[in-house]
UniProtKB/TrEMBL annotation:
Alphabetically ordered keywords of this record: Nucleus
Cell compartment(s), UniProt: Nucleus
GO terms (BP aspect): maturation of SSU-rRNA from tricistronic rRNA transcript (SSU-rRNA, 5.8S rRNA, LSU-rRNA)
Protein name: BA75_02475T0
Species of origin: Komagataella pastoris (Yeast)
Superkingdom in the source lineage: Eukaryota
Family listed: Belongs to the UTP5 family.
Keyword check for Nucleus: yes
Gene: UTP9
């Protein structure tokens, strides 16, 4: 097999799906859109950058900045999503060398790199984190707090009670659950306060997944490595309330509400998803429903929202998704056996398709009907369509003349509105017209004082700054490559000129050559030259 998928994860809202691919010469992280299945960004890492784990983190936006947010779909259409809110999501990737990479589904560049001197064992985030997430440093025996926009840890809290921490879970009240074989309830204050839940008898292996009950925050459910039993714990009683035997080794747990009941959904090591009702005490009869494939292809993950469960699997190294209602029924997904012979050819073809899709999206933003000649016409066109975000984006993307004069004529409200539309589109899309950068630049230059008066625009300015800083990092590499290409082009041109001159000289020599045959001596002379001397004597 040329390469394999090692880790997968749905984002907290089920919109994006991230997975890592281990290749012979490099590792790669790919993010795709669940609704369309299209790849939106991919990141290539060196082979030595071993990926240990990753988690999704969410950067909150203010109410004003998300009021009219929009996003471009894979067919190029600009639509309102999530009631107009486009939360800023990033994938935090933990490497074995201690570094944490912050990757965005909206760009193909690494948004940030957090440096650690020692390896981080685990990462955890939560839905309202605002870019904040936690990790455990085994060497320092400490809990580290990270921010997606910072290049090092924000704070460090010593926790030396158990150096084998492999899992961190953030609860609803922002307290932490740390787990090895034991479970610790930790309050991340200036001084660490914690409560230890003892290891249940007969279940002493390492914990691999934890969830907190939605209806009863006192209840915690844990799954352990090489263990088919789920343990239901009570934080108040500091012990195990009951257990659930799944008959299969559990890899991860999720919980959800449906029809006034709370359910547990587990992914097992053989790629089968099991669903059962969360038990509230001992002696309850537990029945399971299953979702699996009809072949040896395993399911790799799932996400539950509004009574619908979305599952994932891979077909010839490409992610596939299916949705089912959460009922007490078994589902079997029809799949085909993976073929390893054509994996690299299919992947190359898929990359070409992605490039074509991105290029077509870029073309669809630009509309020749929106191109105007004068600044007055451009100002009037923008003013009349300032509430239509998709039209404004198309107008700006289609015009790169008279931008400065047009922006200067905008009043305070229109300038702020135009900036928010263009900046949100710029930060929330994989592709965009280069003309949008020109418009954003002129708005900042001309109306900078107005922009810094609003907290909403300041937040967007900070995001733009971080994106530009990341793009600036690759500039020396690009200039170096440009220099090498220019040198190679010059060498190739010189080589062609020399070859052309040599060919012309050779042709001239051939044309100037005359052959003489002397019949007496049967000899041939070049250029009419001969060693015979004329007989001067008559």
């Amino acid at each position: 097999m040329a390469y394999s998928v090692s880790k997968t994860l749905f984002d907290p809202e089920g919109r994006f799906f991230g997975y890592s691919v281990d290749r012979r010469s490099r590792n790669e992280i790919i993010i795709c859109e669940v609704s369309s299945g299209q790849v939106v960004s991919r990141f290539q890492l060196d082979m030595q950058d071993e990926i240990l784990a990753f988690t999704w983190i969410t950067q909150k936006q203010s109410k004003a900045s998300v009021k009219k947010a929009s996003k471009r779909t894979t067919n190029g259409e600009v639509v309102q999503v999530n009631g107009g809110a486009v939360p800023l999501k990033n994938l935090a990737v933990m490497l074995k060398n201690g570094a944490i990479l912050i990757l965005s589904p909206y760009h193909n560049d690494i948004s940030n790199k957090i440096v650690n001197e020692s390896e981080i064992k685990c990462l955890s985030s939560y839905s309202d984190s605002n870019g904040i997430f936690y990790g455990y440093d085994k060497e320092l025996k400490a809990i580290k707090l990270f921010n997606a926009t910072e290049n090092k840890s924000v704070s460090i809290l010593e926790f030396s009670v158990d150096k084998n921490i492999d899992l961190i879970q953030v609860l609803k009240d922002n307290t932490l659950l740390l787990a090895s074989a034991s479970i610790y309830l930790v309050s991340p204050n200036d001084s660490i306060d914690y409560i230890r839940l003892p290891v249940p008898r007969g279940h002493g292996t390492r914990i691999v997944s934890l969830v907190q009950s939605i209806r009863n925050p006192d209840i915690i459910v844990s799954a352990r490595i090489n263990d088919t039993t789920l343990c239901v714990h009570s934080l108040h009683k500091k012990g195990t309330v009951t257990t659930v035997d799944t008959l299969l080794t559990v890899v991860s747990i999720h919980n959800f509400e449906h029809d006034d009941n709370e359910y547990l959904a587990t992914l097992n090591d053989n790629g089968v998803i099991q669903i059962c009702q969360l038990p509230t005490g001992k002696g309850q009869t537990i029945t399971f429903s299953q979702i699996r494939t009809d072949s040896r292809v395993p399911l790799t993950g799932f996400y539950v929202k509004d009574g619908i469960i979305t599952v994932s699997w891979f077909q010839d190294m490409h992610p596939r998704f299916a949705k089912f209602p959460c009922r007490d029924s078994d589902y079997i997904i029809e799949t085909e056996e993976n073929s390893s012979e054509s994996q690299e050819e299919d992947d190359d073809k898929n990359e070409d398709e992605i490039i074509n899709i991105l290029e077509s999206e870029k073309e669809e933003v630009i509309d020749s009907n929106n191109i105007v000649e004068t600044a007055e016409e451009l100002y009037e066109l923008i003013s009349n369509n300032i509430e239509d975000e998709s039209r404004v984006i198309s107008i700006c993307a289609s015009n790169n003349s008279n931008v400065g004069e047009t922006v200067k004529n905008l009043n305070k409200s229109k300038a702020s509105r135009l900036f928010m539309i263009l900046a949100q589109y710029f930060t929330s899309n994989v592709v965009y017209s280069s003309n949008l950068k020109l418009w954003i630049k002129w708005i900042i230059v001309t109306h900078g004082r107005i922009l810094i008066e609003s907290s909403e625009t300041v937040q967007v300015l900070q995001l733009l700054s971080s994106i530009l800083d990341e793009e600036k990092k690759v500039l020396p590499t690009m200039l170096s490559l440009q220099g090498k290409l220019t040198l190679l082009k010059a060498q190739l041109s010189l080589r062609n000129e020399i070859a052309s001159i040599s060919l012309e000289d050779e042709e001239k020599n051939i044309n100037s050559t005359t052959v003489y045959t002397v019949a007496d001596e049967n000899m041939t002379y070049d250029n009419g030259e001969t060693d015979d001397f004329p007989n001067v004597e008559e």
